[in-house]
Automatic annotation (TrEMBL):
InterPro entries, alphabetized: DCC1-like (IPR007263), DCC1_Trx (IPR044691), Thioredoxin-like_sf (IPR036249)
GO molecular function: protein-disulfide reductase activity
Protein name: Thiol-disulfide oxidoreductase DCC
Listed Basic and acidic residues bias regions: 62-72
Region called Disordered, residue ranges: 53-72
Listed CDD domains: TRX_superfamily
Domain of life: Eukaryota
């Protein structure tokens, strides 16, 4: 009805100089239309309510989806939380892991890090290169560790080429070079200075508690 009325009004306007159409008023084309019958803003309020109900339904559906349980991890990643470049990769893996729940992340720079709970791997050893512990207790390092980690969050294709020689050896050599000089590259002090600072920090934090210092 509104479309037909609009078309008629356009015809009248177009031929407004035609004497035969001057006497025709616009209400002839809207015999039953009464704007005051529709409260102002009503249509938009209804749309808002409908949209809100859809959003709540979607949110409820998303909340009902099962989340991966952290105890079902298949590999444990030991990472240096004080390394800014390393953390970019760790954050990416953490984001991917929200869907898979296959990786348990352990920050070796934390005062709570326990070698006893991680196959006896102390801070200095893990700082030398990337270490990962599989759920069966097997420890993997270097490029192999990255390969395992990426495979468990659906990104195995990134490191799949390193399974073949001589590419695998080249990748290992590149990573070993990075691991050796990453402290200098990221502007951090030598490992000896870091170890001394950690030792001093533990003494100040733990006091006389021997268990805390180990």
């Amino acid at each position: 009805m509104a479309t037909r009325g609009a078309a008629a009004a356009f015809v009248i306007w177009k031929h407004r100089n035609n004497p035969s159409l001057r006497s025709i008023s616009s209400h002839h084309f809207y015999p039953i239309f009464k704007p005051q019958m529709i409260p102002k803003g009503c249509r938009y309020q209804i749309r808002a309510i409908q949209g809100e109900s859809v959003d709540r339904g979607t949110q409820s559906k998303n909340n009902d989806e099962p989340k991966p349980k952290p105890e079902n991890w298949k590999i444990k990643m030991l990472y240096d939380g004080d390394c800014p470049l390393c953390m970019r990769e760790v954050d990416m893996l953490k984001e991917r892991n929200e869907e898979y729940g296959t990786i348990k992340f352990v920050d070796i720079s934390s005062n709570d890090y326990s070698p006893q709970e991680n196959q006896g791997l102390n801070y200095e050893t893990v700082m030398g290169q990337i270490h990962a512990i599989q759920s069966d207790g097997n420890v993997v390092t270097g490029v192999e560790a990255f390969r395992k980690l990426y495979e468990l969050v659906g990104l195995g294709w990134v490191y799949s080429i390193t399974k073949f020689e001589p590419i695998g050896k080249v990748a290992d050599a590149v990573y070993d070079f990075w691991a050796k000089y990453r402290l200098q590259v990221t502007g951090r002090p030598p490992i000896e200075a870091i170890l001394e600072a950690r030792k001093k920090n533990k003494v100040e934090t733990c006091g006389d508690s021997k268990a805390c210092k180990t």
